[in-house]
């Protein structure tokens, strides 16, 4: 709400703005007359940067389109101008988060378990809809959008955790831990988490921390170099594709690359040629979709205890608090290590 208090509602992922506002109105016990008059509620997204946008009543799946640190506000039209982002929720106050307490295996396994759940929820047709229909298919691609959003969240999480760690020794230790987590995700055949962590460590605000990288043991420097080679987009991601081809299901691929391949297939040739269906193109797309089916053809079995500390780790991994503002990440980076480029 405009005063930063909030109400919680349960809603379908595909709910329209109208449905969400109806639930909020009911929850706030707005009377019929109030809703019908000028002070009817509108739904607004407010990003952490302060950017605002009013959502149209017919829009659907708005949850999947929110930025990482964006929030939904329900307000009347006359309070729109006074909306400001929530006070910075992210603990920019340096301090130890869960990642310092937990073993790398536990974090990696919880990442894999969660990403497998998200990956399994995506219907094969969402991949096709995403490429063929773009914006129009929002409702049809909600689960896929959530996974893509999560991928970006993990990338920012890596940078956030490192940059909130003020002590150089601790930061180098955390860097080593993150490389270990990436290695275990790779062992788990969770290439989505693996890729996201490597991309996160390659963020310019992190890679410029010369003193931190220098403190990393040689063994881990070499390991990270190998990881960089594996995620190198050179020759159309040749190294990654070769590694992936040797893996047996269950596995979680780096989903953005599947979408890139499908987009290339779709835009590279017409679906209709002289009024006839381009069967070859559709066969290629079907083949791609079949590989997704193959990746999920066996269940993923990870032994995760239900102890209180494990449940705490699970909650941490599923609700990552991240800074998604690159300028803020650079600010923190220069505060930690002013010198260098």
Automatic annotation (TrEMBL):
PROSITE patterns: RASGEF_CAT
Pfam family, one: RasGEF
Domain Ras-GEF: residue ranges: 103-339
Any one Gene Ontology molecular-function term assigned to this protein's record: guanyl-nucleotide exchange factor activity
Domain of life per record: Eukaryota
GO cellular component: plasma membrane
Alphabetical GO biological process terms: Ras protein signal transduction
Keywords: Guanine-nucleotide releasing factor
Record's keyword annotation contains DNA-binding: no
Family annotation (InterPro entries): Ras-like_GEF (IPR008937), Ras_GEF_dom_sf (IPR023578), RASGEF_cat_dom (IPR001895), RASGEF_cat_dom_sf (IPR036964), Ubiquitin-like_domsf (IPR029071)
Record's protein name: Rap guanine nucleotide exchange factor like 1
């Amino acid at each position: 709400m405009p005063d930063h208090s909030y109400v919680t509602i349960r809603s379908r992922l595909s709910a329209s703005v109208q449905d969400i506002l109806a639930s909020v109105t009911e929850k706030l016990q707005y009377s019929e007359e109030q809703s019908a008059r000028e002070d009817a509620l509108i739904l607004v997204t407010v990003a952490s940067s302060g950017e605002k946008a009013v959502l149209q009543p017919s829009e659907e799946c708005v949850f999947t389109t929110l930025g990482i640190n964006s929030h939904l506000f329900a307000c009347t039209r006359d309070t729109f101008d006074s909306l400001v982002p929530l006070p910075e929720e992210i603990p920019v106050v340096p301090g130890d988060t869960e990642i310092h307490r937990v073993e790398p295996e536990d974090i990696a396994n919880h990442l894999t378990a969660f990403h497998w759940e998200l990956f399994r929820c995506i219907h094969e047709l969402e991949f096709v809809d995403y490429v063929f229909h773009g914006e129009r298919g929002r409702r049809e691609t909600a689960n896929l959008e959530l996974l893509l959003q999560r991928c970006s969240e993990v990338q920012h999480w890596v940078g956030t955790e490192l940059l909130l760690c003020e002590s150089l020794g601790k930061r180098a230790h955390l860097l080593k831990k993150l490389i270990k987590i990436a290695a275990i995700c790779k062992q788990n055949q969770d290439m989505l988490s693996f890729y996201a962590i490597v991309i996160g460590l390659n963020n310019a605000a992190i890679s410029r921390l010369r003193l931190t990288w220098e403190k990393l043991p040689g063994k881990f420097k070499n390991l990270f170099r190998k990881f960089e080679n594996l995620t190198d987009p050179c020759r159309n991601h040749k190294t990654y594709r070769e590694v992936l081809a040797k893996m047996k299901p269950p596995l979680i691929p780096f989903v953005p690359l599947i979408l890139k391949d499908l987009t290339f297939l779709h835009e590279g040739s017409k679906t209709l040629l002289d009024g006839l269906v381009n069967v070859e193109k559709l066969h290629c797309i079907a083949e791609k979709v079949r590989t997704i089916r193959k990746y999920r053809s066996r269940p993923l079995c990870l032994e995760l205890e239900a102890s209180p500390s494990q449940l705490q780790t699970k909650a941490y991994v599923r609700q990552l608090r991240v800074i998604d503002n690159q300028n803020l990440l650079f600010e923190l980076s220069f505060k930690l290590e002013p010198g260098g480029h």
